[in-house]
Fold this sequence. Notes:
The complex is a heterodimer.
Chain A: E1 47-49, E2 52-59, E3 62-69, E4 74-78, E5 81-85, E6 93-101, E7 106-107, E8 114-120, E9 123-128, E10 131-135, E11 139-146, E12 152-160, E13 166-167, E14 179-187, H1 189-193, E15 197-199, E16 232-239, E17 242-249, E18 260-267, E19 279-286, E20 289-295, E21 297-301, E22 305-312, E23 320-327, E24 332-334, E25 346-348
Chain B: E1 6-7, H1 15-18, H2 20-29, E2 57-58, E3 64-65, E4 69-77, H3 85-101, E5 110-115, H4 117-120, E6 145-146, E7 151-157, H5 160-171, E8 176-177, E9 180-181, E10 190-199, H6 204-207, E11 255-264, H7 267-271, H8 275-282, H9 285-289, H10 313-320, H11 325-329, E12 341-342, E13 345-347, E14 354-361, H12 364-375, H13 377-380, E15 397-407
Parallel strand pairs in B: 6-15
Antiparallel strand pairs in B: 2-3, 4-7, 4-10, 5-7, 8-9, 11-14, 11-15, 12-14, 13-14
Helix pairs in contact in B: 2-5
Pfam families (chain B): DUF7405 (PF24152)
Protein name (chain B): Tat pathway signal protein
Organism (chain B): Haloarcula rubra
Amino acid sequence: xxxxxxxxxxxxxxxxLVAGCGSFQSQSTRAPPLVENRPDGTYRPTHVEGMGMxxxxxxxxxxxxxxYSFPHRFWTVTGTDAERVDIRDADSVHLMAxxxxxxxxxxxxISAGVSIAIERDGETVDEKSPWPxxxxxxxxxxxxxxELDGDGLxxxxxxxxxxxxxxxxxxxxxxxxxxxxxxxxxxAQSALDQxxxxxxxxxxxxxxxxxxxxxxxxxxxxxxVAGELPGTLLxxxxxxxxxxxxxxxxxxxxxxxGESYLAVSAxxxxxxxxxxxxxLDGSVEAGGETVFDDALTxxxxxxxxxxYGAVVETTGTDPSVGVDxxxxxxxSRHEGYETAxxxxxxxxx
Amino acid sequence: xxxxxxxxxxxxxxxxxxxxTAALAACLDxxxxxxxxxxxxxxxxxxxxxxxNDALATDDAGNPRMAHHHVLLLLDYExxxxxxxxxxxxxxxxxxxxERAYEWSSDGLLFTLGYSPAYFDRFEAGPAGxxxxxxxxxxxxEDPAFDTPDALLHLASDxxxxxxxxxxxxxxxxxxxxxxxxxxxxEGVFGVADRRTGFVGGGLPAENQDVDGIPDSEPVPxxxxxxxxxxxxxxxxxxxxxxxxxxxxxxxxxxxxxxxFIRLHLQQWYEQDSREQRVxxxxxxxxxxxxxxxxxxxxxxxxxxxxECPEDVVESGRREGVVGHSQKLSxxxxxxxxTILRRDFDSTxxxxxxxxxxxxxxxIADFVATKEAxxxxxxxxxxxxxxRTNNGILQYMTVERRGNYLxxxxxxxxxxxADPA
Lengths: 349, 421
């Protein structure tokens, strides 16, 4: 079976394009039983679902895209605990908002998040702030299950908050203001029912991941290949199934004389989806001295992607770096990620 | 979010939420309470309008318990320019009539009348000796509208019929209350720009949970005093009335008042978060680990045991990935005491689950500092705690409106000049 059979419906409101998905199944069977004895790490989920495009719009410096799919089960994360959220009878769709920079097409994980209100004929139908969330095929997005009121035309309103993450280089002047956007969403149950749905009875529970989907209208979140990160790659380490690539920049347009930059890019294995909302401590020794020992700051740079970094007062080029995960990513998880990245490993580079 | 859609729900509104003489009549049909009469001499009442604590009932643990029913009237002065002495006399007479009719207690009637920056704009300078700034957004992730009436009247009682009758009497649609004739009304002096209502106390939120923002599963516990399912207003978490009182200048004996309207979105709170997550987010993760909070938290007594949460809130947040609402607020203390006195209550105004967050403090700056501690922006910096996710209860609320007021001392409550000296 071709795993890459998820197609976004490319902005045709309501009309979803499905490539060869054979069986239509009732909603109750779209949450097959969880894999027994799930591994402590990224694993292939029981199934994946396609996504329809509800619309996209510009909001200040941001672009916002709305996708929808069948209601999902997912896990919220508090500390090192993942708490399962089951599908309610009332849930109509899993709504996903993706926020990106239209210039670089980089998906932006914003800690202050997004609020979504769904309206119909001027009345509020559902309203809540979706969780920051990672999914093997959808990457990082803001998602939750929402309740609609049958077929019809809805307005999806999103407020995207300002980023309080550190922005570097060309991003320094951007994303500092909240912005709002709305799209018209022509929802039809029949269109939702035609989204692809694929189970993996043979491979579910195996270590691995389904591929990140590629969409024409909307970028998906992916950190750069470790070897393509700017600066000198200090190494790539793995812990609690997360992959940590550390790079050292002696020069960058955002650095002053005498400064260097440590960047740690935390990502999922297989798909390189960024792991936002972690607490990381870092230490740097250069020339036999400890030149940095503090928290790393979540930051964004067009070439480094989302990462955790620190400006270090040194011109040393051969640093020894220690990184401690103090708290794992507090992003919610779609199936296959809920047992991964919940530990607090330490690394040295 | 501005330009929001209206609520899609038709719900059974309480009499106070509906308001008016018909609601009052319906309310009295269910049985007229025996309400104690007020003071023969209103001059014997406390000099502070906000001196409520001694007039409130107490709960089993000894915390002052807020009156159950509330009406807020946002009022505009109908005269031109600065108020006339005649208008002042009329307002004072009307309020004294209420004080004669009802005991100054939650079994009778409690009220305050405050004045906004917009009110003081008609004078040459702002109120003497007290800063009452225009309201502003108090977090990067909020976008409130600002209330700009001239005055804010807060009526509170354990009896629905009392707040309704007092309101109607002031509006002039009812000639007497509790068998006492009104000597005057607000007619011709104050017009009502907006009316807001609410309730607090065990049972009331559960009774009124059929609104937007609360899922249909009716998750609010039967005995919860507030929609979020936990008790608040512990004596140990509240400023004293002394602490919030303006201590010098012509408005000494007054206080500043902040009123915000916050909409609650509790589907995630009740249907996705576990009890442990709720306790972590409302109090602190240590309380969740130790099972410190039973039910709605009556077992906590007179404080929420926040000194048993880790003291370094930023470090605790970084390590735990979550930080509690009370835990964050514990940082806003001065000399180990809170600086604001909450008198907030829930609401179903507009068919939406909401909270009228009313607080008193000596200076609006005390409120701003407390709100800043609650924002936890410093906790989310360099930390797994999001700016709203796992950051107390910020995920579940939207601040819709803010307004600031000066509560003058009782002697100056009727259309005060900016500089009474």
